[in-house]
Design goal:
This is Putative hemin import ATP-binding protein HrtA. The chain is of the alpha/beta class and 230 residues long. Helices cover 31% and strands 26% of the residues. It has helices spanning 46-53, 76-86, 102-113, 120-129, 145-158, 175-190, and strands spanning 4-13, 20-30, 35-39, 61-66, 69-70, 87-90, 163-167, 195-200, 211-216, 219-222.
Length: 230
């Protein structure tokens, strides 16, 4: 059974003549063990797709089902619990707490979730894999854009979610780091049996993906093997 499904999703912004149809009859499913890319140019609806998939935003119509639960039928408290226990977000804004050091960002995750986290050894391996093990005593303001992005990835993965949703996780990274992140996401899917969904315009990640979808004009379709660059 798919761990996350979107069924006939539509999303509108605005009203009247200014109404914009951002997502149009979108159907999507992801299983554990899969790394899926959703690609498209800026403004195509990628981020809206991701936030709806993770329950951060509600669709205008259609259903989102996460771990067999219809998100629309849950209370706010139940939705928050579902996200906390099952969904890890890597958002484009990074959303790091500016007054917390890197190690405190991770400690905050432990205090909130408490159980089901990566082991200490696995966390250290993750920090090393991302090249940030020497940054744990630094504040976000002392980090480069690429370093900040990698800390945001580590924070999301420390919670050990079944579903990882990433919004442009390689936008600030050079090609070597892109490859490391691609390998990490692939390993999460295959070895740790996660469902990993990445929305991006960075086709350097395509070689690591099991499937690649494309959003154009609010419509989602499975992309053919031939790669394009945005």
């Amino acid at each position: 059974m798919s761990v996350i499904e979107l069924k006939n999703i539509n999303k509108y912004f605005g009203t009247g003549t200014s109404r914009v149809h951002v997502l149009s009859d979108v159907n999507f499913a992801a299983d554990k063990g899969e790394l899926i890319l959703v690609v498209g140019p800026s403004g195509s609806g990628k981020s809206t797709f991701l936030t709806i998939a993770g329950g951060l935003q509600t669709p205008s119509s259609g259903k989102v089902i996460v771990e067999g639960q219809d998100v629309d039928q849950l209370t706010k408290k139940q939705r928050d619990k579902l996200r906390l226990n099952h969904v890890g977000f890597v958002l484009q804004s990074y959303a790091l707490v500016p007054y917390l050091k890197v190690k405190e960002q991770l400690e905050f995750v432990r205090r909130v979730k408490r159980t089901g986290l990566l082991s200490s050894d696995d966390l250290q391996d993750l920090l090393a894999q991302l090249g940030i093990e020497d940054l744990v005593d630094k504040f976000p303001g002392q980090l480069s854009g690429g370093q900040t992005q990698r800390v945001a990835i580590a924070r999301a993965l420390y919670a050990n979610p079944e579903i990882v949703l990433a919004d442009e996780p390689t936008a600030a990274l050079d090609s070597a780091r892109v490859a490391e992140v691609g390998k990490l996401f692939k390993e999460l899917a295959e070895t740790r049996n996660k469902a990993v969904v990445v929305v991006t315009h960075d086709m350097r990640l395509a070689e690591f993906a099991d499937k690649t979808y494309e959003i154009l004009d609010g419509k989602l379709r499975l992309k053919q093997p031939a790669q394009e660059t945005y």
